[in-house]
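Q: Got a minute? One more chain.
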Amino acid sequence: MRTLFYTCLAAFILFVPGKTKAEDFAYKSGVYQVELKNDTLSIENDLIKRTWLWNGGSLITLQLDDKKNSITWNTSNKRPDLLLPGEQTTGSAATIQAAIIPSSAQHVKHLRVTVEYNLGDLNIRKVLKLYESTPAIACELSLRGKAAQTWIKPLSNAADLQNIERLTSSSEAGKVPSVESLSLSGLHWQIEAVEFLDITDRFNTLVRPVRALSYRDCIYRGNLLFAEDTEKGAGFFFLKEAPTSNVQLHYPNGDFLTNGGTFHVLGLGVDSVDLKTDEWTSAYGYVTGLFRSDEQEKLSALRNYQKSIRPFLADRDEMIMLNTWGDRGQDTRVNEAFCLNELELASKLGVTHFQIDDGWQAGRSANSAYGGSYKNIWDNPNYWTPDPVRFPNGLAPIVQRGKELGIEICLWFNPSIQNNFADWEKDAAALIALYQKYGIRTFKIDGTAIPNKISEIRLRQIYERVMEATDWQAVLNLDATAGRRGGYFFFNEYGNIFLENRYTDWTNYYPYWTLRNLWMLSRYVPAQMLQIEFLNKWRNQDNYANDRFGPANYSFDYLFAITLAAQPLAWMEAANLPEEAFAVGETVRKYKAIRNEFHRGTILPVGDEPSGRSWTGFQSIGEKKGYLLLFREDNTLATANIPVYLPGNTQVELTPVIGSGEKRTARTDGNGNLSFTLPAANSYVLYHYTIR
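A: Always. Here it is, folded:
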């Protein structure tokens, strides 16, 4: 509601009726500036400026300016950035608005520029967003009205390149909508297209980068495309704010089309059949950003934008969570006495959040050990009230004891999926009622599926209503383990991501697997927005007999340390831990003292990909300081030189926070490598570093 208020206020003050030849328009606030003059629109902040031909609102990019590095990209775009098969290319009845959205629990302060225009009977809305000190411009895209034809006509085989040059044509023969386009000079473009996989119950390699030279028409899958002009020593990235490629709606068999210096973002997630004449339908968004040819600058440009999507508030978003489901007890033990006992033990571990998973509610889900279903939830109007037998006093005693121990109570929730979330209002009301009665604001959202646009819309309506009712104090742990869900770049404004289910019972928990998934994702996804698990290493040791990578071969501290770059998740019943496990509480206490500073940095992977035998880790990059979390896996190298994100010949003061390191002064070599020593295999250290 806040966003709507400020946008409407700006519309009242700054609204300009658009024409094919537009009237002049200007807006300036701090580092932000918008100007529409002589049929040319420019929008800028302190780091980036983009210029378009107005074209009746159907914008055609003319120029991109990297203000930080004094690099200008002139484009040869002849057609609009947004191309829809069969639709006109020149807009009409265009309008422009501008507003500053202030900082709040919902937003990082930013500029929002709204352009609306018509293509025949079709209405288009683009909301362009710029954040301070971020060299990127994001676009939210919405459509309304009637399309001239069906847009999505996927190739039967994406490898069939016959007539591929017509994929993004605006003619009747066009098959694929292009939502963003850049045509730049030069032939020496090095590209990195990155495909992501969720459904982590099935997949255990979640990142698939492809590196290539841009040549003739070629389609790539993924949410991210980096393109670097090796002659200029600079480039740009596209981020497609959509679910992972394998579950997107109306998927055109690819996300990016490249041809030399011409690049397109493909696929709306919307087809003409989804449109309504009386309300807006949101398409997938996208972001275009600029970078200099430097790995840190490239990844930081992306990360600066990602960290602006949702303000990271320590008292809301930091959590060390205990969820008992990881010991496979399911709902057989969940009751008031069990939860009260778990809280006492959680306090010894240093846990800050205790989440009661499936089984707290009166209804029975399909996950219940006693049988149940996800269907027709609202046939039982009391489904989402505490089970009266297990919790005869409701959740009040649990919540109260949690407050006394400094532990926030959280719950599991499964929206009613039948009929495309037709009961979404009841689901939202149930979550809000739990917040209003008990103050519970963190919910694991499970069992969702997005097979079509109406499901996506209604799921978002649940989230939005809960956020508004809680003044954006709610945190939704969005489960990424199964089904068609949001992935890593969709619904990011609502909370964090519950990444994976792993169990010693099924021998699919290996510490280096978990570390590897986090390490690989952290190059492209903010690690602090992922929940990463550590398990009870004493359970099911017979399942790992003679397995050098079994959990029992690592200290409990080490298992906890794997999760530190993310949000740690104790995926276990504390009551099943031996007494020696609670010594980790001291490590947790030290970590809690620095975790917010650690998570506010730009966290990137360093070292080699975790393999169980590597030297690996993470670096949190701050201003003249930061953190280095290093792991010596099961290898014989007591010392390793690791490339880090520090200039060559830089002296740093290293102060250990936890783990096996010693305080020392060190200097990077000429290539930016830093030497580290750990005394034993399967050991770790977390250093705070200061540049001297």
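A: The CA atoms of residues 563 and 675 lie 23 Å apart.
Q: Perfect, thanks.
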